[in-house]
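Submission checklist for the structure archive. All mandatory fields must be present; incomplete records are returned to the submitter.

[x] Identifier: NitT/TauT family transport system ATP-binding protein
[x] Organism: Xylanimonas ulmi
[x] Residue count: 268
[x] Sequence attached
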Amino acid sequence: MTMLHSQPRVDVDQVVAVDGVSVTFRGKRTSTQALGEVDLTVRRGEFVSIVGPSGCGKSTLLKVVAGLVRPTTGSVLLHGEQVLGPRQDIGYVFQRAALLDWRTAEGNILLQAEMRGMDMAAARRRCAELIEITGLSGFERAMPHELSGGMQQRVSLCRALLHEPDVLLMDEPFGALDALTRERMNVELHRVCRETGVTVLLVTHSVPEAVYLGHRVLAMGPRPGRVIEELTVDIPGERDYATTLTTPEFQRVSGRVRALLGSPQGGD
């Protein structure tokens, strides 16, 4: 009798899988373990916030997912395929907008298309859509010095989304902005992510930002960084900023995150 062996079930909605990843940077005389063993998964369309003390390896973890840093141990899968080098199917947003001074807002966005060899007609259509979505209409020809910090970060976000990546990695993207602009950008980012359906991994030092934006919040401990607790944020997808911050669920999650990080109640 022929025996039928069932294949393991593949979770098609699992976009990112980090399994036992650690990173040690080795110099000539010393070595530094940036990450302990980290495990995490991110599902399609999910927004996962990562918080932790400075130097705990949050940014290193993003770079491992992006294929910019090779893990010392463990592996990263993107759509079930092992990440062995820089990926073309992700978008990356840094703390600084890093715009080219001599290019317009539109020109900075389209730089992505030029570097990737995208069809320029399609890229210009996508650029126009993103400019509309992010509220940059009317500023297409503006130079970087003519834009506020928040607008510059919107341009950076458009550039990262131009090639319609499956995954958006964001490393403290609003850290250099004033508090009010940061709140407005939180609202804008939440709306853009809902409209595009992109999967997001966000590194931030701001507890309110992490909880307001995230479906889940991962709290990391001191270096070598490990995920010490994962918290689900049970807040409706449609979120008014001021109202959300007063809800019992927001207070519960943010309070727990602060307790884990040893930070005082209130503030960032």
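[x] Structure attached
Curator remark: The chain has eight helices and ten strands. Helices lie at 58-66, 105-116, 120-133, 149-161, 179-196, 207-213, 241-244, 248-261.
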